[in-house]
């Protein structure tokens, strides 16, 4: 069995298909790695674009708290 080389990341942008905020990304974190919805597997963006979304921050305080909790082990 292949080891899982991806991790979950919560972004401020909801998946256009299912509304989830959880995404899967390679643990390597190359800028051109693809980011996929953890629920429906839809492609969202490249890892470099996801980083930009995280740097801009969430739209409100509740989103900020949720992202901090979910993403704290990934930075």
Essential attributes:
4 strands; globular; alpha+beta; about 80 residues; four-stranded antiparallel beta sheet
Tell me the overall shape.
globular
Number of strands: 4
Radius of gyration: 12 Å
Strand content: 15-25%
- The strands making up the biggest β-sheet line up spatially as 1-2-3-4
Can you describe what's shown?
This protein is an alpha+beta fold. The chain is built from 2 helices and 4 strands, in the order ββββαα. It has helices spanning 47-56, 61-71; strands at residues 6-10, 22-26, 34-37, 43-46. The protein has a 4-stranded antiparallel sheet. β3 and β4 form a beta hairpin. The chain starts with 5 loop residues before the first strand and ends with a helix. The model has no long low-confidence stretch (mean pLDDT 86).
Write a short abstract of this structure.
Helices cover 28% and strands 24% of the residues. It has 75 residues and is of the alpha+beta class. The chain has a 4-stranded antiparallel beta sheet.
Task: Walk me through the topology.
Blueprint: E1 6-10, E2 22-26, E3 34-37, E4 43-46, H1 47-56, H2 61-71
Antiparallel strand pairs: 1-2, 2-3, 3-4
